[in-house]
Amino acid sequence: MAKITLENLAHSYLPNPTREEDYALKSMDHDWVDGEAYALLGSSGCGKSTLLNIISGLLHPSQGRILFNDKDVTMAPTTQRNIAQVFQFPVVYDTMTVRDNLAFPLRNRGSDPAYIQERVQQIAAMIGMEATLDRKARGLTADAKQKISLGRGMVREDVNALLFDEPLTVIDPHMKWELRTQLKSLHHEFGHTMIYVTHDQTEALTFADKVVVMYDGRVVQMGTPQQLFETPEHTFVGYFIGSPGMNVLEAKVSGDKAVIAGTEISLGQGFGTPTGKVELGVRPEFVTLQSGDEGLPVTIKRVEDVGRHKIVRADFQGNEINIIAAEGENISPEMNRVVFDTAGINIYSDSWRVAPKAA
């Protein structure tokens, strides 16, 4: 297991980058704690796989260093980093049995045969392939092959880190849930440092101790699921985390008041006078629909009943506002105002969160 340090790390696929825009991975400094499980989360092209490939040694960064337990491994090949990596598409040896595929990393390192047998049986049970251990990999389904690939990545107990690059893409939904649960169980049992790349927020939030949200080549926030939900540090985090995501509205803010399209609302705490592009962010869970004169005037467009609750889509001067309502709540056309719970309000300047001012 290893603490992973990223020191002034950045990467460009251009030979002579001169501007920040030339970098696929913008400069970053982070310490990732030994033994924790991290998820790299973001939309396609945000730099997740680039960062993972730098950590694994498949790619050397344009600048900066990467350290494992304070040892510089920036230019070290993958073979010297003592990591296991599982890729998006399964990599298996078709001519080998499932058993031999799982055993290969251990045999390659000269492990004791009795230990290999015990460990292979343990991993086969974990991925649900005990009944196919003696079958050749050729002819197995894509999801079965990916389970083998996952198992081979997890079979070693002595690795510095386990890296997963969208490993459940080809797995059916029910098996995804089972394998995520098994990966979490494996992490709790053995305490490996795990890094899991995904664009799926459910995978990230259920797997990781810390979620690393990436946008446009940079880490915009690293935190627990609760932190990402309650205090998104960037509007992208608010938009990307949650279903639906955070409502974001342009506003003029002064102290503990905000004016949105001519309507003044209370913020519950002071934010000074932020400059730049100022926006108010509030999650649908902190928005209440009501009738009367208080709040922002809206028109209900539709109501979606998703079983656990209702999602109300409302229009505010051309802006969609989403509201989470209780399953049993009656939504009537007379409900033409929304009010915000001040505990759930965040203020942003040029997309970055503004910290409240002390009283």
- Helicity level: 10-25%
**CATH topology of the largest domain, what is it called?**
Rossmann fold
CATH architecture term of the largest domain? 3-Layer(aba) Sandwich
Uncertain segments are none
Please report which band the strand proportion falls in: under 5%, 5-15%, 15-25%, 25-35%, 35-45% or over 45%.
25-35%
Structure description:
The structure is a single chain. The chain is an alpha+beta fold. It has two domains: 4-235, Rossmann fold, CATH 3.40.50.300; 244-354, Nucleic acid-binding proteins (OB fold (Dihydrolipoamide Acetyltransferase, E2P)), CATH 2.40.50.140. The chain contains eight helices and 23 strands. It has helices at residues 48-56, 98-107, 113-127, 142-154, 173-190, 201-207, 225-230, 235-240; strands at residues 4-11, 25-32, 37-41, 63-68, 71-72, 83-86, 161-165, 193-198, 210-215, 218-223, 247-250, 252-254, 257-260, 263-266, 278-282, 287-290, 296-297, 299-305, 309-316, 319-326, 337-340, 345-349, 352-354. β22 and β23 (352-354) form a beta hairpin. The radius of gyration is 24 Å and the shape is globular. The relative contact order is 0.12. The mean pLDDT is 90.
